[in-house]
Amino acid sequence: MSFTLRVENLRALRKVEWAPEGVCALVGANGAGKTTLLMVLKFLKLAFDRSVDQAFEQVFGSSRGLRHRQAGGESICIELAVRDRRWQLKLNPHGANISYPVSESYYEAGELAWARSSSGDFAEFPDGKSAQNTV
Questions:
Q1: CATH code for the structural domain at 4-132
Q2: Where are the domains of the chain?
């Protein structure tokens, strides 16, 4: 099954879109982001299985040096797409710890299926309805 991974503003990765097919090799200079790109896959698996907080702590440790140096105040965006489904996380780390707001969105066939705000305690659906703790 093929997938597309998109990462923005994470460590050395300013804007990367990767859709691996078959056997792939990641090549580049030291500090180019090869390891970070592979760490994102581990992060997404743990975030899906456990929680974003636990995954972030286990994979990245702290938020120190996490945002790309040219990102300014832009969010870190991590997105995984498989066929017509897309899961997107936007993170805005603060300080050296991992207490950061995370917004989360899920799309099917290009349409927003649900979104969770950075406060994490409610979901918004495209029809205007909202639900407590459904996501």
A1: 3.40.50
A2: 4-132
Look at the block and give the residue holding tokens 């994470």.
10
Residue found by looking up tokens 């899906």 in the block: 48
Rounded to the nearest angstrom, the gap between the alpha carbon of residue 51 and the centroid of all alpha carbons in its chain is 12
Cα dist from 34 to 16, 30, 57, 63, whole Å: 11, 8, 20, 19
| pTM (two decimals) | 0.81
β-bridge pairing 85-91 and 111-116: unpaired
pLDDT tens figures, 86-129: 999 998 876 655 555 688 899 999 999 988 876 665 566 666 65
> 1-5: long-range contacts (C-beta < 8 A, 24 or more apart)?
1/82, 2/82, 3/80, 3/81, 3/82, 4/79, 4/80, 4/81, 4/82, 5/37, 5/40, 5/41, 5/78, 5/79, 5/80, 5/81
Q: Convert the pLDDT of each residue in 16-42 to its tens digit.
A: 999 999 999 999 999 999 999 999 999
d(CA 86, CA 113): 10
